[in-house]
Amino acid sequence: AGVKEDSFDVLDLMEYTKNRPWWRKVFAPSSGSSAEKYNVATQLVIGGVVGWCTGFVFQKVGKLAATAVGGGFFLLQIANHTGYIRVDWKLVEQDVNKAKQQLKFHSSGNKMSPEVKSRVNEVIVFLKKNVILTGGFAGGFLLGMAS
């Protein structure tokens, strides 16, 4: 009787995924432009629905964040007015001015790291290849923000 030896191929996923764009890692190895896979109506519907959901969530989270920040500032003012705490507003103003100067300094250089540039370029290429999907997403996002 013959002895059957099982042989397995070893696939190193780290090496396999190292030089692949992030969207191909997420969606599938055969995933290219959605224009290659779906018709225009499907792309618009998918983009619109995902955009609307994203816009709706952003709207709700934005309202919650604005309420939290505004409420915190309101409570700070009440505590300051009633004497529970004392805020050194001159020190706050100095710190804000320092932060503004640092922001101006960092933004004046306008130099992005090569890693950030490559990611930005990947996103731009993805958006260019999927213009219809991107347009649907943008429209849906605005509708989601408005609803």
Structure description:
The chain has 147 residues and is mainly alpha-helical. The protein has one domain (40-146). Helix content is 73%, strand content 0%. The chain is built from six helices and no strands. Helix 3 (40-82) packs parallel to helix 6 (131-146). The termini are far apart. 9% of the residues are buried. The model has no long low-confidence stretch (mean pLDDT 79).
Mean pLDDT: 79
Please give the oligomerization state of what you see: single chain
> Mind summarizing the main beta sheet?
none
Question: What global shape is seen?
Answer: extended
Kindly name the structural category.
mainly alpha
Strand content: under 5%
Please indicate the count of domains. Answer: 1
The sequence of SSEs as H and E is HHHHHH
Uncertain stretches: none
Write down how many β-strands occur, each being a DSSP E stretch of 2 or more residues.
0
| Percentage of residues assigned to helices | over 70%
Tell me the distance between the termini.
72 Å
How would you briefly describe this protein structure?
The protein is mainly alpha-helical and 147 residues long. It has helices at 13-18, 22-27, 40-82, 89-109, 114-129, 131-146.
Topology of helices and strands:
Blueprint: H1 13-18, H2 22-27, H3 40-82, H4 89-109, H5 114-129, H6 131-146
Helix pairs in contact: 3-6
Structural features:
147 residues, mainly alpha, 6 helices, 73% helix, extended, transmembrane helix, FUN14, membrane, FUN14 domain-containing protein 2
